[in-house]
């Protein structure tokens, strides 16, 4: 069975402004998502599921889904603030979305096969899709055997400001032993550093980080639902707390419920975190086309 690609596209891109998922960066108006889906198809994925917000469904269907109609099966699911387990309501004053793993939960009714999770606005590169598709295609039915693509932190920074990354630790077998979401990482005086409280801490250039490219089997949804209830109870008074994927992954590996293989890739990540990043991304895509990595027109 071919794996499914699950694209997290519900974020409105607060730092970049506007619906950046629909921003045409390729020579024929291709979005970053288009390149991801092109790479996923040639890597061996068989279906694409998008999670979005209801408020831009019409725009999304017109500008995104239409172009894939004859290329690969696609489905839409929705993430909203009030999509919560029974017995829970949105806390007063809460406007921030519940985070990436809440978005993943929205796919539980339509995804029945191994699946990869990616962000809509990150350019992951051809090799990363081939690597994760191969791993997911070879998984047994036993479950709890997950994976992630690890990028070198030095290759994932923005020149326009700080970025959020899940910093990873691995054991001798290449299994993930811990992942910590660092919300402020940047290069300072030539050194990669993250901010912890008021302190800046240096990290090695090649430290593997999560770019939110994860591979799961459907049993992950049950773990996610169970742990989301704990998260909501623990964060009842924190209207800004987010249910990040690394949060539950960390829980599953430290409790011994699951293993996560860190997959190496030759791909270099880039993305439009800030509006100022856009021209460089356009140029990088043009260079990849010139090098023969992509055709001039994708679909």
Key structural traits:
alpha/beta; 299 residues; eleven-stranded mixed sheet; 26% strand; globular; Spore Coat Polysaccharide Biosynthesis Protein SpsA, Chain A
If you average the pLDDT, what whole number results? 90
The count of helical stretches stands at 7
* Coarse structural class: alpha/beta
By DSSP, the count of extended strands is 13
The fold-level CATH name is Spore Coat Polysaccharide Biosynthesis Protein SpsA, Chain A
CATH homologous superfamily heading = Spore Coat Polysaccharide Biosynthesis Protein SpsA, Chain A
Order of helices and strands: EHEHEHEEHEEEEEEHHEEH
CATH architecture term: Alpha-Beta Complex
Poorly predicted runs are 12-17
**Count of discrete domains:** 1
Q: How big a fraction of the residues is strand?
A: 25-35%
Distance between the termini: 24 Å
Describe the protein.
By secondary structure, the protein is α/β, with parallel strands linked by helices. It has one domain (4-148, 209-243, 260-290): Spore Coat Polysaccharide Biosynthesis Protein SpsA, Chain A. The chain has helices at residues 32-43, 57-68, 100-105, 126-137, 219-234, 245-254, 278-290; strands at 4-8, 47-52, 74-78, 115-119, 122-123, 145-152, 163-170, 176-188, 191-196, 199-202, 208-216, 259-264, 270-271. The strands form 2 sheets. Strands 1, 2, 3, 4, 6, 7, 8, 9, 10, 11 and 12 form an 11-stranded mixed sheet that branches. Strands 5-13 form a two-stranded antiparallel ribbon. A hairpin with a 2-residue loop joins β8 (176-188) and β9 (191-196). α1 packs across α4.
